[in-house]
Amino acid sequence: MNIRITKEFRFEMAHALLGYEGPCKNIHGHSYQLSVTLKGIPVDRPGVSQTGMVADFTDLKKIVHEEIVQHFDHALVLNKDTPASVYAGLQEQKLILLDVQPTCENLVVYFVNKLKNVLPPALALHSLLLKETSTSSAAWYAEDNE
Description:
The longest helix has 16 residues, at 57-72. The chain has a six-stranded mixed sheet with strand order 4-3-1-2-5-6. Helix content is 20%, strand content 35%. Strand 5 and strand 6 form a beta hairpin. The protein is α/β, with parallel strands linked by helices.
């Protein structure tokens, strides 16, 4: 029987949208909330410490922290085509330059790709939900992308 498990993460991040015709063209920050949901069959092997678990939440926390949170928490994230004058003097800060616009939607896709590359084969990434604010979010579902 397939079961879905979800672990939530929080991090602070700043970004700016290159060429955007609104206030988000300016560097600003958000308190992001990321929910990662896996789907799998709970381990059913007597004597194995993970019996009854789809995955150990501690293992999931370690993977997401190493692949996403430690890099993006308190970072400034910009499109790589952003003029260097915008972030001049910030090179010694935590600066991430992406190939895409750092929108909530693009960040979800980026995070999905990072996680798909490191999750154990027995675990399926079911969905990611990234909340940029308390009222704005972007979601990715595996079933929509098969």
